[in-house]
Amino acid sequence: MTVADNPARLETHTITLKPTNVQLTVPAGAPLRDLLFEQGVEFPCGGHGRCRGCKVRIIAGGAGLNDAQRNLLKPAEIEAGWRLACQLTLDDDLTIELRQWDAAILADTAAFTFTPREGYGIAVDLGTTTLVAQLLDLSTSAVLAVRTALNAQARHGADVMSRVGFAVADGGQAVLEKLIREQIGKLIRDVVYAAGVDAAQIRDVTLVGNTVMHHLFCGIDIEPLSHYPFEPVNDGLQIFAARDLGWDFLSGLPTIRFLPCLGSFVGSDITAGVIATRMHESEKLVALVDLGTNGEMVVGNRNRMLCASTAAGPAFEGARISMGMRAATGAISEVEIVNGKLVCRVIGNVDPTGICGSGLVDAVACGLQLGAIKANGRFADKAEFWTIMPPVTLSQTDVRQLQLAKGAIAAGMRLLLEQLGERPENVSRLYLAGAFGNYINRTSAQRIGLLNFPVELIQPAGNTALLGAKMALFAPDEHELYARIRSRVRHVGLNEDQRFMDTFVEEMSFPS
Questions:
Q1: Domain for residue 252, yes or no?
Q2: Within-domain flag for 12
Q3: How many CB atoms lie within 10 A of CB 143?
Q4: In what order do the strands lie in the sheet with 55-60?
Q5: pTM (2 decimals)?
């Protein structure tokens, strides 16, 4: 009789994770990707061995090499024990140092005006990377419980287009839909339990997310978003009963709403941002920008608004940067010049292992200030790498990735203002939404030409998606509210504007 014939004798191995000392006992041959995803490790390329985003260091035990790892890892990294988690199966007891750890998920604590209601409500921000659920007492607007998680869909691709590619494959959309509905159901069950409230008293659940998340949760065919002109077949308000989603524990049968999008890749998270910042009520010209793989922006006032999205690429989130990582322990998150030298802040106050988006923006701004980087993005000394804080370096390609990202955002904002007949100096306030916008140094963003506005007008606005979702729980006539907002917003397809490419090229250069 073999081991396989006798489950009781199934071989197992132990994984010890550093720095937390978490121990996992798992079957031999199990893919390391599935195990480490549950521990917060991301797989930007969907676990296909096409990037370096899931690097882990093997401290003890044996882990094999394959061609994907040899192609992507430097010989010195391999010698030091670094491996790609997505390419490994568990064939030995391992002690692993995680390069990604302790990612900050931005919740929301902002106060807002409301009309009291009876019962409880739940607001959910369904992000591409992270999920946040908050349970509110509708009579006071007090948040009674919060739960966060990494989006389980990320094992099939870290960015929206990777997710779209997986979804249009045979059966892929059904897999992603089932994953996210079950995961959000669990988050909701957890906040109800944590708050100690009666599930029968849950009156409403409001969800927001980008257009891809909207479609993947709501079961709307995502195929049109995979090709030009990238227009959704249905991006409006979606209403569900709990039983439709398999959430039978919500015995009070609340109404579950996924807020409408504003067009193409401008999702309901931006609709919620408009609600949160009250752009639709503003007499003055204001702007809202959400910086991420897709840069989404809205400019206007209560009379008229234009919105657009642009493929900024993943540089702001640390992906495709040679030593990039998300904002986790070991990431350089801030860089400044002190007495002519670079001084870095590392998350967790540990030795640096990489650099996240906010640190990248700071580093390049400092490089421009010191003359180490030219306005065209080239290193002044023609070197291939620039050391930020050993062993972390920036490559010439890293700087180019940032130029592509910031050029796309700046060009998009410039064209929206031109279509409104406005100039940057006429904007009374620019709201920066999301986690990256919350942590980015505004002076650095201005210095590299990402945000061409006076620093004092740039306001980090936190998680406007979650705040708007909470405010929507109190909307007296939500259908009228969403119809009013959508009637005042026109989506601009930047890819259809003949000036976009020329403007984009102009905005790629750094200010002198």
A1: no
A2: yes
A3: 17
A4: 22-27, 12-18, 94-98, 55-60, 82-84
A5: 0.79
